[in-house]
Amino acid sequence: MQLVVARIGRAHGIKGQVSVEVRTDEPELRLAPGAVLTTDPASAGPLTVADGRVHSGRLLLSFVGVNDRNGAEALRGTLLIAEVDPEQTPDDPEEFYDHQLIGLDVVLADGSRVGELTAVLHLPAQDLLEVKRPDGTEALVPFVREIVPEIDLERRRVVLTPPPGLLDPAQALVASERDAAEEPAAPAAEPAASADEPASAADSE
Asked: Is residue 65 located within the same domain as residue 105?
């Protein structure tokens, strides 16, 4: 099975290095020197990782045969794809490969069905789960523990505890109106003292 593990970004320096947007929880394995990766578009690869290092919080890679900035710039936007055994699972039980999640039922904590998980989107800010609703619409769910507290591969389901409005914008509007109605009114402001008002005793001491 193929797994997208990174997306190539800008060239770095003049010797063929590129920055990459990592899309795997195991970059030390998938993007290690010697790793051979297929690409999208296919015409850009396959690429063999020659070396890698972290610079200013970004992973920089160099590839065999890419020795200058022009060659690195030509790879910009290319997806790097690794071959993964479908039966293989991450060492950390709290981590999952995309292919393990796609196709799972998505339900609320009370068991109500939300839809089917159709994709995992790896964005710079955070990962999102794409959920197809029964009516054909799609919802994007932040892949964080507060909203996705449970993933049960044996029962093939993902449990959500979404905040109001995440799945139904109308719920957010209702919640906002309710909060506004419950908010206590601000106390009336006391009138300001006139310029002719005598000073207090404390002021005169």
From this structure: no
- Taking the model in full, what pTM does it have? 0.55
Regions of the chain with pLDDT less than 70: 85-93, 124, 169-205
* Residue 31, in any domain of the structure: yes
Same domain, 10 and 62: yes
User: What one-character DSSP code corresponds to residue 35?
Assistant: -
Output the CA angle 11-15-19, nearest 5 degrees: 30
CA nearest 84: which of 163, 24, 3, 165? 3
Last residue of a domain, one of 83, 109, 130: 83
Predicted local confidence at residue 125, as pLDDT? 75
- Report how many domains make up the chain: 2
164-196 pLDDT per residue, tens: 888 876 654 444 454 455 555 555 545 444 344
Q: What is the DSSP string of 159-195?
A: EE-PPTTSS-HHHHHHHHHHHHHHSPPPPPPPPPPPT
Q: At a CB cut-off of 8 Å and minimum separation 6, what does 34 contact?
A: 48, 49
Structure tokens given for 102: 């796609």
Chain centroid to Cα 108, Å, comes to: 21
> pLDDT tens, 136-156?
999 999 999 999 999 998 899
